[in-house]
Amino acid sequence: MLGIRLPHDLEDRLNKLAASTNRSKSYYAKKALEQFLDDQEDYLLAVAALEKDNGKRYTLDEAKKILELDDEN
Fold it and tell me: What is the CA radius of gyration of the chain?
C-alpha cells in the first residue's frame, strides 16, 4: 500500500486522464512507477554503489574485468 500527496495541478491532470480513459488513477500511478524504475533503476543502483564504495571509480576496462565481460558480447 502506498499513499502520496500530489500537487493540485498534477492531481487534476491525473483525474482528467483517468476519467477520459475509464482507467483508475492507481493504474496510471503504477504505470508511471514502472516506467520510472525501468528508466532509472540501473542508474540509481550504480549511484548507490558508488556512494557506498566511497566514490571509487573504475575505468571501462576495470569494470569489464570485474563484471567478466569481453568485447565479443
Answer: 20
